[in-house]
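User: Predict the full complex structure for these chains.
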Amino acid sequence: MRLHKLRITSFGAIESVDVEFGPGLNVLYGPNDLGKSTVVAAIRLGLLLPHASTHSEQYVGWTGTGDPTVEMTFETEAQRIWRVRKQFGKTGSSVLHESRNGRDFNEVERGRKVDGRLREILRWGIPEPGGAGGSKGLPTSFLATALLSPQEEVGAVLRNSLQADSTASGKEQIAAALQAVAQDPLFVALLRETQARWDAAYTDKGAKKTAKGSVFKAAAERLNETRDEKERLERIVFESEGAEKRLRDLTERRTQKQAALATAGELAENLERLAAHAACRSAAAEQLRLAQENLQRIQRIGTETEEAERETEKLAKKIVEAEQALNAAKGWQAEADVALKNAEKAAHAEGSDSGVTDTVVRQQLELRKAAVDKAALDAQQKIGNAEAAQTLVEAATTAERDLQDQESKARGAADAVSQSATKLAAVERELRRCDMLERALDVQAADKHVAEAQATVDKQTDLSSRLETASSDRARLAVQRAAIAVPPASALGPMRRLAHDLAAARGALDVGLVVTVRPKSRFDLRVRKDGQEVDVASNTQSVDIEARAEVELGIGDIATVHVRGGRREAQDKARNLEDRWSREVAPHLVAAGVTDLAGLDAKSEEAQELDSNIKAKDAELESLRGQLAGLDGAAEALREASDRAAVCRAALGDIALDTLAADLKNLGADAVALRKRREKYSKETETARAAAYQAANDRTLADERVRHSRQALDAAVGARDRALANFPEGLDAALRAARSALAAANDEKQQVAAGFASLEDEIAARKKRIDEALSGARTNAAQATAGVEAAQTQLTTAKTNHAAEHGRLVELRKQRDAENMAAAEARLQESIEFHAALPVPERVVSEEEVGAARNAATGIKVELDGIEREILEAQGALKQVGGAVARERLRDATEAFDLAARQEREIEAEYEAWKLLLEQMKEADAAQASNLGQALGPAIVGRFQDLTRRRYETVQLTAQLATEGIMVSGAVRPTEQISVGTREQFSTLYRLTMAEYLGSTIVLDDQLVQSDDNRMEWFRALLAEKARNFQILVFTCRPGDYLAKRALVPKGSFVHADSDGGFVRAVDLGRALRRR
Amino acid sequence: VLRLLHTADWHLGRRFPSFPEEGQKKLSRARMDVVGRILDVARRNSVNAVLCVGDIFDDPDPGADFWEGLAKTFQGRGDQHPPVFLVPGNHDPLTPESVWAPDHPFRAKLPRWVHVVDRDDFTYEISPQAVLYARPCRSKAGENDLALALPAREPGDERLRIGCVHGCTFDIEGYQTNFPIRRDAGVQRGLDYLAIGDTHSFRDVTENLPVPTVYPGAPESTSFDEAGAGRVALVALFRRGLRPRVDAETVAFWRWIDVRCRDMNELRSLLTRPDLDRHVVRLHLDMTVSLSEESEVERILRDLRGTDATHGRVGVLLEDLENLRLQVGSGDAFPEDLPPVLKDTVARLDRLVVEAIDESEKSRATRALAHLYKLLQSHEAIGGREV
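Assistant: Here is the predicted structure of the two-chain assembly.
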């Protein structure tokens, strides 16, 4: 995370403050009581506190005007820039925006959701507001403490740990940062290879990859291919074996059937033979029976002839008796006929007189009936006509009402047509207006794009210019740097040690010497002491030569005496060190053009400063190039934007933008609102068009109905008038008269009907009396006639029977005479003898038995034929599928399938093992990384030892980053036992190390007030170095602790001043901040 | 003396799907290569005829590569050559769609001395004193005894009579429909020699009968269970009534063997065996190895089978690793100075091995250890950490 801007208003004692931060070290300075810690608190609240929290009440402006407001812009990663604005208080608000370029922001959250989102972005181990574990006041966590702890909580980080965090996000963030740094390279290499194996086989979700090219796919395809081939061949073999089995079965069945056929044929033959024997005996028996019957028949003819003679005599007597009975019946019949004739005469005489009278009465009644029927019909007709006329009158009235109704509806429809047309025209106007506004918006948007593109082009030009300047600066610095030849800074220490050692070694030789020369003769004496020539005044007198370490005497050309102070070891050491000096140091001094190490130090510092400047320039150049790279195509974008603007203006046509200004102002250039408006009018237009169409339809229908109703009315009125013309006396009077006439006619009809009924009763009584008299006479006559007929019938029957019996007698006598009794008896005897001579069969065989045996044999033969056919079919099938060939191929295919299955299992096991290995490697890695103390400790310890010149051995951190203590002289001591200054320095180092790993902003609120100058200087160097890696905000009342004097904000109206290539920014809070 | 070369079961076009792809091609090509060697043997022995008794092709309609290859081999022998008789078998029966059909282009490419037995009454006078009778298979299976369908010796016929049919002389359940041949068919039909083909090992099925009935076997094996394969029969017929002499001559290039190794030494010694490049080896590894030994096993197998860059020591290798087991756990295979995180990984996997509730979990964890071990080894091989 890196803060870009901070704006605070009405916050505690602060009326307003507006600060832009640099990317590295930001030193915000000002006198005591200015409000520095309030600014730090505002940062904490802006990032961590929900706006409605009562915790913010302590920051309400002291003058009571306006709610405390904090707005800050910060970046979490490249192109992820956030702006949060919180107005604290019960009626406060929060809003979070996001941007990719730091200029165009989009709102992403508002209200209560802002804090949840912020905590998700920060990942500091703070839960969402309102959830379990949330605190009521200012929420905190280990990371929040480490990065933002206030001045009064200098050592808070040493008392806290991740243990107390409500969520794991802080720990995860630290672990991820440490893990990435701490992984062993060998492990990383193996993990990468294992991951590659995993990736080759599994999807991100751990499922097996089945797409083309995956290891499983190839094996599965091979397995499927071999399985298909195997199954195909198995089917073939199955069919083949089935065909073979069928063939065997059929062959066996054929054998069985052939045996069965032979047996059945033999049985049938045997039965046929027995049946033939039985048939012969049966024929002989029949002959015998016929002979016996013939003899019996001849004997029966003789008997019947005698009986017929006796019957003929009996029937002749019956004929005589019947003739006598007939004569008696004829006498009774004559008497009955006479009695009947007399009765008929009497009946005729009574019937002719009464018939005339009945006819006259009936005619009169008929006449009355006809008259009354006509009168009733007329009356009925008149009533009908009157009622019809009444109906026509009512129909005319109804038609008139209908016409009025339809005319009313037609007027309504015409009004509706007019209204819908008006509405349609209105919405179409609005729609056209929307089109214009859309085009106008397009024009405005295009103009905006042109302006933006122009700005980008300008920026590009500006950046190019800056790039050029920076390049030339960098080149100049490089030339300067190239002119300085100094050893690396790390080499200066050993040089200094060498100088020190050399001085010490020389010191050891500096023992003081006094050499006395007493010449005994004259000689030339040359003296050189401590490396310098000395003039000797006399070469004849004794001379004392005093030196610190070394004396060299040249005695003529006889000898040179070299006297050196100190022990031999010291001399050797000094000589060695001198040699080393001449080898290791002297060349650097010469190269640097200096004479001593102090000069070399100065040159080295100069070179370092130049290196630093060059590096800063490189960073600036890289930044500028990066920015310029992002602006590639700006000119093209400007051209395109201009073209687009021209096209949009052309689309707007002659209409001036000013005429649309009011609407556009109302819309606020809101294309969405306009689109909604246009959609609304489009819908309304559609609705209005539909309504107009419907109204026109309704009107047409209404007009048509009016026309129909008018025609119906005209027809009804005509019919009514024509009907009323038949009733001049009035319709009601005519109806009443007709109904009276009808009632009178009905009364007369009833009277006539009564007359008819009386006449009919009288006629019926008379007829009954005559009929009874005639009936008795007729019955008597009929009985007499029946008696005659019965007697006649008996006579005829007697004669017929006699004649028949007589005829039969004659016939029988003829038959008896024609038969030969002796011949018949002889034939009978012959038949008996033939029958007795025939053989008797073993058993009785029926026709059915023989037939069944034959049928059985035939059936077996048919079955046998069927089996033969099936055998041929099975042979044919077998030839197609190929028995042994298929089995051989199946064997190969099975082997191939087994191999493929084994290979698939093998691949699966291999990759399952890779999967397991990857899981275990990751778990081991996570377990290693989860000991955060182990991972973070060395970095802190290294700096702490450097700071304290190894006074402290190490630092004990737990896995959850709790500080157990500091190791001193082999014992762990709680941090409370070390000095306040060292504790605050250790705490600061801990926090800086953490921020460095996370690449996050850290706020130091006057953390190092107890530090001495040396350690402060050490810290200053550290902060300057780390400012290149992450952002540090230092709030202090002593800017000199952190900044060189030249880096302070110069006098004038500037609020901030940058140095060190932009990595150090001094902010004069006294100018940036307005107090109430 | 009438000399014959009797061969069968070439199975040109046969596939070997259970072998690695490279091996499949070698074995498939070997079947074509052996034809040339067979014809060389025929020439060297000055035979009067070459009888190829069925299953010349593995399929009645083989790929053009195979029938064209065979025709080309024949064409390469020039115009003067003892007659060669090709008899359709149950693998390549004579059907209208088969390579033997008169209108098939294969027929047109054959030299005139190659005769296809494409009639049921095929007769050929090899010499005035010798006549050949042959009958083709017309389907992939059949119940008829084609040998008994050959004409019987006529009274007074004193010529040498040679029969030539493809089928099965044994009477095994399920094989009755594979063109059964009675063992005494040669005697019944008055033949002097009955040349048959079907099974792939050389065998005289009628050693106690006066008429030899011989399977020459496949000239190149098709599987590991064909002990007597790889040969042809050289037949010398002296005169009627005297049992002909039948000799087997090896023509195969490949020798198929099963090798079983029960420990590392046996496996290592395989590397010293000569002539493995002419062998088809089915290698069964039946042993338990440590992580380091497993790597050696892989190295040896790579040597035997060859790589993209080098030939293998074995001609064709079929690996059976079903019974190759890994010792469970890491043992002392890993170095002491591993980075802590890798030590932890090994320890975790060892723990999984110990706590595994079944063999599959144990095997999985052991395999994972083996993967890790090999990764470390390969890292060492490319200049990384020493293991």
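The helical segments of chain B are 21-44, 64-75, 105-109, 185-188, 264-270, 291-305, 340-355, 359-381.
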